[in-house]
Amino acid sequence: MCLGAEAIAQNEAAERKYHYELRRRERDWNQALSVYGAKQVEYDINTSAADMGIAQAYADEQEQKRQAVGEAALKHEELYRELAQKSEYSKILSSGGTGRSAARLGRMESAAMGQRVAKMTRELMVNEKQLDRATAEAVGKYQGYKQKQFSQVAFQPIETIAPPEPVMRNVGAAAFKEYLSIGSQIATAVAASDRRLKENIKKIGESISGLGIYTFNYIGKATKYIGTMADEVLQIKPEAVVVRNGYLAVRYDLIDVNLERFE
Questions:
Q1: Is 70 helix (H, G, I), strand (E, B) or coil?
Q2: Could you tell me the residue ranges of all domains in the chain?
Q3: Is 208 within 8 Å of 256 (Cβ atoms)?
Q4: Which of 108, 137, 211, 218 could cross-link 207 (Cys pair, CB 3.0–4.6 Å)?
Q5: Residue 184 has what pLDDT?
């Protein structure tokens, strides 16, 4: 293959690879956006549920506090009713009794009444504190859950950097280079490449198409060459192989290996 044609082929391959990388980048980006969008929807649903849970926790707390205050008010009423019905001090007063004994009895009943009211007040306060702690704990769990959900969408996907545009080979320069170096190549496009005609065969590389690149000399000749083997070309590009005088020859203008003198 001539250098100009090789440059064109390499440019086309670079262009294909570049557009492939662009398509893959776009595909990956669209997929990342889709996944992030699904996470956002899930985040909105879950955080809305958490907010409803927080609001319900506060509502439950207030309702329980109202119930506790209502029950305490009923107990106060029952306490005063009981005192009115069973108070010995009231009975003494209603019968016209007075004196230090009556006054002492009145103070004792008032103290007992005060103790019971104080106990009910303490129980009410303790109950409120327990409700506050329980609500704070529930709200804290909901807030922690919201933060965990936020961590799933906190960082938006960032589009990757576009692949660099391919650096194209100068086809004209490659062709000119080929013109300058043509003296080191074999003039004919068809060359005998049958292994039976060669010796000192040593593989030094492989072409893009998979053809082996070898150094060798023809049997009985001192000049060394770089080229390929006809039997390999026959497997990969059979149309580039011809038969001359019972031996295989290769059309080097149809393959991606050059036949050159090796010094």
A1: helix
A2: 3-151, 185-262
A3: yes
A4: 211
A5: 44
